[in-house]
TrEMBL record:
Membrane topology: Multi-pass membrane protein
Transmembrane regions listed in the UniProt entry: 12-32, 192-211
Keyword Membrane: yes
Keyword Nucleotide-binding: no
Lineage: Bacteria, Pseudomonadati, Pseudomonadota, Gammaproteobacteria, Vibrionales
Domain GGDEF, first and last residues per copy: 353-487
UniProt source species: Vibrio viridaestus
Keywords: Membrane, Transmembrane, Transmembrane helix
Cell compartment(s), UniProt: Membrane
Any one Gene Ontology cellular component term annotated for this protein: membrane
Protein name: Diguanylate cyclase
InterPro entries, A to Z: DGC-Regulatory_Protein, GGDEF_dom, NarX-like_N, Nucleotide_cyclase, PAS-like_dom_sf, Rev_trsase/Diguanyl_cyclase
Highest taxon in the source lineage: Bacteria
Length: 487
């Protein structure tokens, strides 16, 4: 139980008002946490769908150009034109859902609601994409009503050759804009969260000040304040001037795994391994050795001539993990990749060194989806991700870039021996068939491109683009699986 000392009287209504305000601010913080979680989930859905549009664009073009014009009426040609029709309809419906809002099928074949995208840049891109998509619609309708002819096939090929690269570029721009807006929106919400917390902290300090004005009249009210302190959904710790714990709440014991007695007089450095400025993410260490991502807020107060540090520690591990992890494969996602590239490039600039970026794409993945369904496709992605994780070196980092595309970051020494080692491991990974539920095992191959930082480029976005270009060279040259970028 906390103790407070005072020589003056407290106005009851002022104390009551402060407690009510504290509760309201605490509820606001809770509401903001739900808002951040909801926004992150909605933005992740839109980003995934925007990334899927790129794959759908490639599918449409590939299906049209695989049709043999001399065997238009063959079963294979009919299957390809049906695939083109399904892919085009899904692409168009997704664009319309982005533009107007509405229901669309996600990667797991579930119907989800997508809110209208109101960003001016994004809407301009969507408007242009809808115009390009509508060019295909009349021919697609003719094929649906009268069947495929040599003339309509040639017309479709001309249109796809003209719009394919434009649509790919638009979908890439759309994904970048949505990701950027998502980060800015999340940061704005966190800023509001911080401001609300500061008001709560100031209000908390005001309550303490009111309680200190009198001891006799505030005994019962101290119990109320202690209950508020103990029931807050964050670890509240007061450190002495020499940075030792002199007061903590129940949640602090729950978060760090120490009893109240064990926490008392522990050093701050034993609880917080790394600290940014107030409000920034830090790393804390629990009793069992686990590291937690936490958000630390601090305020200094003066008590009897001594400066005390009131610190609030909020566990944000779930938010951080959700932002960085791909829900299907469990691998880290594009957001985590961007952070890793930024960190590694800064390390190279400061300390020297090199690293390689592998852009890996599964060959034949579309055919698996089309033949066996999306559940089988998901099974393939999970199996492939597991093999990457279990067969590559411990210091190699794997990320799901989107669809059936993965990124592998590999540290290099003065030579390129690790590139050859990883290439051999990628080859070995694909030699074992992949088991599907209720289907025969299948054997797939992969195509990969490699670019090296800073040898090929000192821009991380360009590094991925160069590796992507090399991957397409490997995909077109069936004699090799991995192609190293050369200018």
């Amino acid at each position: 139980m906390m103790s407070y000392f005072s020589n003056s009287k407290v106005t009851p209504w002022l104390l009551t008002l402060s407690i009510i305000l504290f509760l309201m601010l605490d509820l606001c913080l809770l509401g903001l946490n739900f808002r951040v979680t909801k926004e992150v989930s909605e933005d992740a859905l839109v980003i995934n769908l925007a990334g899927r549009q790129r794959m759908l664009t490639q599918r449409m073009s590939k299906a049209i150009f695989q049709i043999d014009k001399d065997q238009i009426n063959s079963p294979e040609s009919q299957l390809l034109i049906e695939q083109f029709d399904r892919t085009y309809r899904l692409f168009s419906k997704t664009i319309d859902a982005f533009y107007y809002g509405g229901l669309i099928t996600d990667a797991e074949s579930n119907m989800v609601t997508v809110n209208r995208i109101n960003l001016p840049e994004a809407r301009s891109i969507l408007f242009q994409a809808r115009q390009l998509s509508e060019i295909i619609a009349p021919l697609n309708q003719i094929v649906a009503e009268h069947g495929l002819t040599s003339r309509t096939l040639n017309d479709l090929r001309k249109i796809m050759a003209n719009v394919n690269d434009k649509l790919l570029d638009m979908m890439n721009q759309l994904t970048v804009i949505i990701e950027k807006n998502s980060k800015e929106k999340t940061q704005s919400l966190r800023t509001i969260q911080l401001v609300t917390f500061c008001f709560a902290l100031l209000n908390f300090a005001a309550i303490i000040s009111l309680f200190r004005q009198t001891h006799k009249q505030s005994k019962d009210l101290v119990s109320i304040l202690d209950e508020l302190f103990q029931s807050t959904n964050a670890a509240l710790i007061v450190f002495s001037p020499d940075q030792r714990v002199i007061m903590s709440n129940k949640y602090a014991s729950h978060l760090f795994g120490y009893s109240h007695r064990q926490l008392h007089y522990m050093k701050r450095s034993s609880l917080l391994l790394t600290e940014g400025s107030s409000g920034k993410e830090s790393i804390s260490l629990t009793q069992d050795g686990r590291e937690l991502d936490v958000e630390v807020h601090e305020r200094t107060v003066t008590h009897k001539g001594k400066q005390l540090h009131v610190v609030t520690i909020m566990d944000v591990s779930s938010h951080v993990e959700r932002e960085r992890q791909d829900p299907l494969t469990g691998m880290q996602n594009r957001h985590a990749l961007a952070q890793a590239l930024e960190s590694k490039s800064e390390q190279v600039r400061a300390l020297g060194g090199r690293f390689a970026c592998f852009f890996v794409d599964l060959d034949g993945f579309k055919e698996v989806n089309d033949k066996y369904g999306h559940d089988a496709g998901d099974c393939v992605l999970k199996c492939f991700a597991s093999r990457l994780k279990n067969n590559l070196r411990d210091n190699d980092r794997v990320y799901r870039f989107g669809g059936d595309e993965f990124i592998v970051l590999v540290d290099l020494s003065a030579n390129d021996i690790p590139i050859e080692m990883i290439s051999q491991k990628l080859h070995a990974i694909m030699q074992k068939p992949i088991n599907l539920h209720n289907h025969d095992p299948i054997l797939l191959s992969l195509s990969a491109g490699v670019a090296v930082y800073p040898d090929d480029t000192s821009d991380t976005d360009q590094l991925i683009n160069l590796a992507d270009q090399s991957m397409y060279r490997a995909k077109h040259d069936h004699s090799v699986e991995v192609v190293r970028y050369h200018a």
